[in-house]
Design a protein that fits this description.
about 325 residues, alpha/beta, Rossmann fold, 8-stranded mixed sheet, two-stranded antiparallel sheet, 10 strands, globular, binds NADP nicotinamide-adenine-dinucleotide phosphate
Length: about 325
């Protein structure tokens, strides 16, 4: 991956022609820009979205401002429904084309009152972690068919303050929207590192890499905090994510994911984020992994719980 000389707000994405990429949550924000740049670099991109009308609108925008880009298609994926995750994966498995890049990007943040997914999981843990865990496991046969597949998991700086409570992953005993979000994003990071170890042990040609976008201005600050509310302002920490001086735009927020997905010297188990102050803004750089994210016992506990809750087992 090279920084574009003289254009310090950007990076060059290597040619992705002939590769198939799946990006979850590609309707807006970081996922949209990740998908757009992958298509611009020549990849075929599947926008995996829960609202196909919004997905088609995103696909049309990518096609219209990127003539010559790789093919872009839309497929329905609601990560808050294991049936939907299975349906989405079944579509790709039926097609049978190897998946070169899977970007587990979609997310919901700071939901004020505890809500659950279709399967009864706490909404953020269920959507952000369990949905992506199941998706990755179900797509594993196609990822293993690729020459050098990459699975990118989008975490967050909130993982630094979070703890994995293996006895209460679904926040049934106590609920706080930010804590539940932090736990789900820590789970994304722990999952990425554990998948890397598993792939290494099994000799799979698959790199699992984590990324985080620092503080990026997207719909995230308003969509989750307003769930269940008819109107009103989202909470203060979410509003702080809209202050331009300490945040960056979504095109830039997508760069760590793009480095993880396409960078030439990227190793499995790596973690990328903005390289500026406090890792909140700036061009991508190696990010520090919080020490509590490397707790092997917790990682194994999370993995076992995720297999049990989703019914999806990775072939070990
Ligand atoms: N923005 C930041 O500063 C920041 C910081 C740290 C981490 N992140 C992470 O970055 C990722 C992308 O977020 P963003 O900031 O780009 O926010 P965003 O603009 O709100 O995008 C979130 C995407 O996730 C999708 N989504 C939500 N629930 C879904 C579900 N049940 N099934 C499928 N898709 C679903 C949304 O779809 P709809 O269009 O249908 O709502 C949207 O496409 C998230 O994982 C987030 O945790 C963001």
């Amino acid at each position: 991956m090279t920084w574009i000389a003289g254009r310090e707000r950007d990076i060059a994405v290597p040619d992705q022609s002939g590769r198939l990429a799946v990006v979850t949550g590609a309707t807006s924000g970081i996922g949209y820009h990740t998908a757009r740049r992958l298509a611009l670099a020549g990849a075929e991109v599947v926008l995996a979205v829960r609202d196909t009308a919004r997905g088609e609108s995103a696909a049309a925008r990518i096609r219209s401002n990127a003539p010559g880009a790789g093919p872009v298609s839309v497929a329905r994926l609601d990560l808050a429904s294991l049936a939907s995750v299975r349906g989405f994966a079944a579509g790709l498995l039926e097609r049978g084309t190897a998946v070169d890049i899977l970007v587990n990007n979609a997310g919901v943040m700071a939901v004020p009152v505890r809500r659950t997914t279709e399967d009864g999981f706490e909404l953020q843990f269920g959507t952000n972690h369990l949905g992506h865990f199941a998706l990755t496991g179900l797509l594993l046969p196609l990822l293993r068919e690729a020459r050098a597949a990459r699975v990118v998991s989008v975490s967050s700086v909130s993982a630094w303050l979070a703890r994995l409570d293996l006895d209460d992953l679904n926040s049934e005993r106590r609920y706080n929207g930010w804590q539940a979000y932090g736990q789900s994003k820590l789970a994304n990071l722990v999952f990425a590192l554990e998948l890397h170890r598993l792939a290494f042990r099994q000799g799979w040609p698959l790199r699992s890499i984590a990324a985080h976008p620092g503080a990026t201005r997207t719909n995230l600050a308003t969509s989750g905090p307003l769930i269940g509310r008819r109107s009103g302002l989202p909470n203060f920490p979410a509003l702080a994510m809209s202050v331009p001086v300490v945040t960056q735009d979504a095109a830039r927020g997508a760069l760590p994911s793009l480095v993880a997905a396409t960078g030439v010297r990227v190793a499995g188990g790596a973690y990328y984020g903005p390289g500026g102050p406090f890792g909140l803004t700036g061009l991508p750089a190696a990010a520090r992994v919080p020490s509590h994210a490397t707790d092997r016992a917790k990682a194994e506990g999370l993995w076992e719980a995720s297999e049990r809750l989703t019914g999806v087992a990775f072939t070990r």
